[in-house]
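Appendix C reproduces, verbatim, an entry submitted by the partner laboratory led by Prof. M.T., so that reviewers can inspect both the input and the predicted structure.
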Amino acid sequence: MNDTRDHGTATIYIGAEETSNQVLTSVEAAEYLKMHVKTVCRLAKEGKIPAKKVGSEWRFLRRVLDGWLAKEMV
């Protein structure tokens, strides 16, 4: 059984890492998708991969990438 506790603005997960809402950088997203980071950034810029620009950096939600990847593979 996983124990979750809310401590202010962040939820701490004890016993397992919560990945469904994990925010990834472009480097982390590239590693997760087994793609080159420049390809991931280009696809994000072109709107072909779901991402959000935060300042000058791209951010990706892991669960959204999972959905995108599943849709693209069908």
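The two ends are 34 Å apart (CA to CA). Additional entries are available on request from the coordinating office.
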